Amino acid sequence: MNDFNTPMHQRRLTRSLTDRYVAGVLGGIAETYNWNPTLVRLIFIAVSLVGSGTPLLAYIVAWFIMPQE
Prior knowledge:
Blueprint: H1 25-33, H2 37-50, H3 54-65
Helix pairs in contact: 1-2
C-alpha cells in the first residue's frame, strides 16, 4: 500500500489485494493516488456506459500489466 507521505515519483501502481471486486485494478489506482475507491469505480462505470467498450478493454489490459501488491 502506498503511503500518503511517499513522493509521487516513488509510488508504484499495483493491483490491490485488499480493496478489490474483480482484479483490484481500480482499487490499486485509488490507493496509489489516495482517492476514494468508490468514486473511482463510479467514474469507471459512468465512462464505460458512455464509451464504446474502450474502458473495459483498458481494464482487462491493466489486469494483465499491473503487478499485484
